[in-house]
Specification:
The protein has 310 residues and is of the alpha/beta class. Helix content is 26%, strand content 26%. It binds zinc ion (2 copies). The site of one zinc ion has 7 residues, from helix 2.
Amino acid sequence: MRIIFLGTASGVPTPKRRLSATAVVYDGETFLFDCGEGSQMQLRKAGLRWGALRRIFISHLHGDHIIGLLGVLMSLQVGGRDSPLFLYGPTGLEEYVQTSIRLMQARIRYELVINEISGGVICDEKNYYVACAPLEHRIFTLGYVLVEKDRPGRFNVEKAEQLGIPAGPIRSQIQLGEEVVLDNGTRISPDDILGPPRKGRRVAYCLDTSPCENAEKLASEADVLIYDGTFFSDEHQTLARRTGHSTWREAAELARKTGVKRLVLTHFSPRYTELEKFLPAFQAIFPEIILASDLMEIEVERQHAHVHRH
Ligand SMILES: [Zn+2]
Ligand SMILES: [Zn+2]
């Protein structure tokens, strides 16, 4: 599982930072969370396969999160896409997309499935599911969590031999976590043969929000929490509340409270530079903070994450 930050500015882009868009590559798919202006160019720069892009999740309809969407949809058409593309986002997403397509007289020939959602599990696949919940911002905004399903532990072949479990379907049953009875009457519990269950990874995405209960729920135990880093300074506390954003202190406190492993701050106000120097004060609250930069990549392994900057 890889996370690639395509755009990390809020409001307006800067020469170094494009607008919000984050890709997650997992299970043969590329997921896109938000689609700020310039996303199609950033997808190209990151070398991501367009064909693998199947699902785009939009947090809210503010321009810095959706203006790049039409460009991506048109690039997919030019690239000859023929498989469906699934869009998820708040009410209004369908009207925005369909009206734009109609006014531009653009031809999108592949199937565009637009899901206007407001909470709960929104897609449930074999290996993962994605859930969302409303956050606290100036307009209706959704946070998301991508959850890899837990897998049964590793099958211990040596032990299976010792216990006389024949190769074949009976072993598959055990691997699926079922109890079996051998021909000689011995009852085998999956716990006898399987190692500890392998815990699935969780990536939460909560941008453009004040700290709130739903953000905490989505973030809970996440391997990586991607969170609103608009304001670094406590001085902007009032401004953060008024505009529906968070300060770094609030982000760090939320990460500590919810047991996340890594906190990645993004969506930085373009008025700030040299953000790194403000970081140590907040690492005292929660040590594992990463400041996102454009095209930065995070490898999410089971247990821990590795960072590569470009
Ligand atoms: Zn924003
Ligand atoms: Zn916003």
